[in-house]
Amino acid sequence: MAMGSLSDSDDDFNPEINTTPLVDVMLVLLIIFIITIPVMNHAVKIDLPRATNQPDETKPQNINLSIDANGKVFWNDEQIDSNQLNLRIAEAAKKQPQPELHLRAERTTQYEKVAQVMAAAQSGGLSKIGFVTDPQAK
């Protein structure tokens, strides 16, 4: 009985790895990657907006200026005369950022009074004037 003999008979087990199927699989994967990579890299060019990191500007408090039918002027619900109006407009014009003047007048207010207030605001240095209206009034 011979044990562990090194003979070349056909009945012996061959311990070598057959690499042919491995090479075939690798070639198939290579071909698949060659075909799919250009498809994956195809991109649509989009001009995206640029983000900036700037602090938010604080908005100034609006000035509510009302004129009633008798021509009386109210600064944030406080009645004032024309001298006080000029002083307050000058103070508001110095603020940075400048507040916005919201002008509200009754329907029966004379246009002359509204024009005087607008002229005082312009000469005082306020550049932002908005008109507040009531669409339900008839």
Residue-averaged pLDDT, rounded?
84
Distance between the termini: 124 Å
Radius of gyration: 43 Å
The tally of helices reads 3
Q: Strand fraction band?
A: 5-15%
Describe this structure in words.
- The structure is a single chain.
- By secondary structure, this protein is of the alpha/beta class.
- 36% of the residues lie in helices and 14% in strands.
- A five-stranded mixed β-sheet has the order 3-2-1-4-5.
- Helix 2 (82-94) runs parallel beside helix 3.
- It is rod-shaped and about 125 Å long.
- The N and C termini lie far apart (124 Å).
- The mean pLDDT is 84.
Observed structural traits:
alpha/beta; 3 helices; 138 residues; 14% strand; five-stranded mixed beta sheet
Question: How is this fold's topology laid out?
Answer:
Layout: H1 20-41, E1 63-67, E2 73-75, E3 78-80, H2 82-94, E4 101-105, H3 111-124, E5 129-132
Parallel strand pairs: 1-4, 4-5
Antiparallel strand pairs: 1-2, 2-3
Quick summary:
The protein is an alpha/beta fold and 138 residues long. It has helices at residues 20-41, 82-94, 111-124; strands at residues 63-67, 73-75, 78-80, 101-105, 129-132. Strands 3-2-1-4-5 form a five-stranded mixed beta sheet.
